[in-house]
Design goal:
The protein is an alpha+beta fold. The chain has 2 domains: 1-114, Phosphorylase Kinase, domain 1, CATH 3.30.200; 117-365, Aminoglycoside phosphotransferase (APH), C-terminal lobe (Aminoglycoside 3'-phosphotransferase, Chain: A, domain 2, Alpha-Beta Complex). 44% of the residues lie in helices and 13% in strands. The chain has 12 helices and 11 strands. The chain has helices at residues 2-9, 57-75, 127-144, 162-175, 182-193, 200-206, 247-258, 276-290, 296-300, 302-322, 335-352, 354-364; strands spanning 16-22, 30-37, 43-48, 91-92, 101-102, 108-113, 118-119, 213-215, 224-227, 233-236, 243-245. The strands form 3 sheets. Strands 1, 2, 3, 4, 5 and 6 form a 6-stranded antiparallel beta sheet that branches. A 3-stranded antiparallel beta sheet has the order 7-9-10. It has a two-stranded antiparallel ribbon with strand order 8-11. A hairpin with a 7-residue loop joins β1 and β2. α3 packs parallel to α8, α4 (162-175) packs parallel to α10 and α10 (302-322) packs antiparallel against α11 (335-352). It is globular. The termini are far apart. The protein binds 2-acetamido-2-deoxy-1-O-phosphono-alpha-D-glucopyranose and magnesium ion. 2-acetamido-2-deoxy-1-O-phosphono-alpha-D-glucopyranose binds next to loops.
């Protein structure tokens, strides 16, 4: 911890570090909350980027700065939030004016501003919460809707390209030789039956039906910050995966995360279901803003996006389990298998309610 305090101190120009503790439940990076004594804004976030995932951290920092500046510019003159505060984490510089620190062990550290008087939840509590989560994503997309996607670097080549995840799965499976438990057999069968689904969004992009836009990349429920007093969404955090992409990946990811009341970390995977009333509320919140920029064709792919992203995350967890837990942090050897089964059950629940979900989308557009 002493060593971390030394890193944290490089990002403060006055005061002194009072406390430093682990923060949040990220599956990839290591995150700490730092408390500084004797300054007006006492908290900031210190993070170590995972070098196996983010191969070019300087590009991540570049994107974060572009997004932060753009959002600040959009919110300054006429807050599009109708009097509500809305923030994203901003990059903090070291005393030397650098946006990161490399420690003696070679780790890449950066600091971000903390969104105060706000909290996050791992699961959606009710339809009011769902509406706020949708609103946050709508606000985020609105704020970036006039940023040319090619201004952002591709920090994670292949991220959210489902056909690529399927190809990787095939390679891992070829090398895999462990015993086939009933759960693994279920997973293998599940993926085999849905191979044709994988390219649905990428084909639409290749045909020019869906166009690239800046995307968040990871808009799950616990990346939306809610005001502790009002419960209103006041920020969207975890911008490392922001890059050119499709808003459909975000919409699908947000819904697969938010409409699963059990949460993605439940061990009770057989009970997992997709809750259509949470879906309605979340889309209502999202479309209250996104209606302004979504096209007819965009709407036509919303259902596919919801189904695909649950499947895709299940496939990513399942592959990582088969590969020996090399990507997602796992607390026990079967952790990524259980996570995969949760997403597969969620996908089945989405499929069995396809008509109802499509009707919700139709009603709201
Ligand atoms: C990872 O690290 P975290 O929890 O913010 C992953 C997302 C997944 C998510 C599932 C860079 O995000 O894509 O949806 O886990 N991030 C990366 O919880 O792979
Ligand atoms: Mg993330």
């Amino acid at each position: 911890m002493d060593h971390l305090v030394g890193v944290a101190e490089q990002f403060i120009s006055q005061g002194q570090v009072l406390d430093l503790r682990e923060y949040g439940h990220g599956n990839v990076n290591d995150t700490f909350l730092v408390t500084v004594e004797g300054v007006a804004e006492p908290y900031f976030i210190l993070q170590r980027l995972n070098p196996w995932v983010f191969r070019r951290p300087e590009l991540v920092m570049g994107n974060l700065r572009i997004v932060g500046d753009h959002v600040a510019r959009r919110l300054a003159p006429a807050p599009k939030s109708g009097g509500r505060r809305f923030e994203v984490p901003l990059v903090l510089l070291t005393r030397e004016g650098r946006d990161h620190v490399i420690d003696p062990g070679g780790s890449f550290w950066r600091a971000l501003s903390f969104i105060d008087a706000a909290e996050t939840f791992d699961t959606v509590k009710d339809t009011g919460h769902a509406r706020e989560v949708g609103y946050a994503l709508g606000m985020f997309h609105t704020l970036l809707s006039d940023l040319a996607p090619d201004r952002l670097a591709d920090t994670l080549p292949g991220f959210h390209l489902t056909p690529g995840y399927l190809a990787h799965y095939d390679e891992v499976l070829e090398r895999w030789g462990a015993r086939r438990s009933p759960e693994v057999n279920y997973g293998l069968g599940f993926v085999a039956e849905r191979r044709a689904l994988a390219p649905v969004l990428e084909d639409a992009r290749a045909q020019g039906r869906l166009r690239p836009r800046p995307m968040h990349g990871d808009p799950k429920v616990n990346n939306v910050m809610l005001d502790t007093a009002t419960g209103q969404a006041v920020g969207m955090v975890d911008l490392d995966t922001v890059k050119p992409g499709l808003v459909h990946y975000d919409i699908g990811d947000c819904l697969r995360s938010g409409c699963n009341p059990q949460g993605e970390e439940t061990g009770d995977w057989e009970m997992v279901r997709f809750e259509p009333e949470l879906c309605r509320a979340m889309l209502q919140g999202y479309l209250s803003l996104a209606r302004d920029f979504l096209t007819e064709t965009d709407y036509a792919y919303l259902y596919d996006a919801i189904r695909l992203l649950a499947f895709e995350l299940g496939l990513r967890f399942f592959t990582d389990y088969l590969a020996g837990n090399v990507y997602f942090k796992a607390r026990h050897p079967e952790h990524n298998l259980v996570r995969a089964l949760v997403q597969f059950k969620l996908t089945e629940s989405i499929e069995s309610q396809a008509t109802a979900i499509r009707a919700i989308i139709r009603d709201l557009r």
